[in-house]
Amino acid sequence: MLTRIHRLQLELAVPDGDSRPTLKHVAARAGVSLISASRVMRGAAHVSADLRQKVEAAASELGYSRNRIAGSLRGQSSDLIAVIVPSMSNHVFPPIVDGIDAALQGSRFRPVLGMTGYDIGTEETILRDLLSWTPSAVILSGAEHTEGTRKLLMRHSGPVVEMLDTDMVPIDLAVGISQRAAGEMMATHLIARGYRRIGFVGAWGGRDMRAAKRLAALAATIESNGLPPLVQHIATEPSSLPVGAEAVGVLRAMAPDLDAVVFANDDLALGALFACQSAGLSVPGDLALAGFNGLDMCQVIAPRLTTIQTPRFEIGRTAGRLLLANLEGETRPPPATLPLRLIEGETT
Length: 348
What we know:
Distance between the termini: 77 Å
Strand order of the largest sheet: 2-1-3-4-5-11
Oligomer: single chain
């Protein structure tokens, strides 16, 4: 009785000991040339729907999958896009990755993901590992990198997109928001609402450099308006609801006369809101709270959180589109700064 592998070998005339179908077998099954089969499997442009359907059907029948590493061994780039983000543990970065994936749909490129924990040394290690797969392009977060990372990126032959921050001169391409403008926007809002003793809560041990830029702009705007210096507490732990809940207590102990607190993101702000409600504090009567990122959940709680909405999905999608255009030979555009939106909730 013939096994499934034996039948496949007979059907494809695969040599003994080599049961893996090749592109030649796919071409033969589809009744097309090897070049045509290769163009379909590479995702080349200007391939007819009929040809694509025949080749993909043959590949599916045979259980064929393209060996993406083979091309890189010949000195070519693979079809991978290296995507490096700080974390996937909250609601901030998944929409960005979704946006990148949406931009790549219909192309031959696929994202491969690495996470840094907001540590630029870890970023260099991950980048070095991902570059060993010869990705066609690199997308990473922020503008602050180790010297080793910068050298790796400068030597990379494909496009490099730095996301989320446009307050810098990019290595290659950049898309995101002005972090400094975000800090100024929130400070201006709180001052206009009459708040005079303002604090800030961050996390990740201060390794989030984009939050640090917002903090600097917030403090500078407060100082320029003749208000007392900003009171700060930066938690060492990753951002989370419990960290925000604990941090607001720490900050109020440092400055009992606080009347408003800005948080590095909405997770921290929501944790603080729940802590204030548990302690019987009125928000914003006793203490105003404001976040950053504009997560959907902030608009379905009571009171609704004041925050700055960031176009996270659009940042990811724009990053993907930029690198695809660059891979097709289009010129490099200037940094793409997307608009911010202040959502005035009930917590200020």
